[in-house]
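Please, structure for the following, as tokens.
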Amino acid sequence: MSTKKKNYDSYFKDIEKFYKIKSDYEHKYKKEKDKIMGNTNYKTMEEKREKLSKFKSKCVGCKKKVNMIFQNTPDFFLSLAAIKKPRVL
């Protein structure tokens, strides 16, 4: 196998990993959002929005409850922990 082929394989595996992490993260967020929105203990939408804004999901890399930022441009794919000093995954 040539080096060029290995680089392509590695590149596509990294892209798959990025989208898998992003998909899992978004699924967990949507599940929590649906749980909050369906909860009848919160009387108003403002209460539900406040509760949802306080929700923090775990970062895949550092495992802290800080949420994550996903960004893709033509040059790179990036996933970061949403903290003051982000860690690139």
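The chain has one domain: 3-81. The chain has a mean pLDDT of 83.
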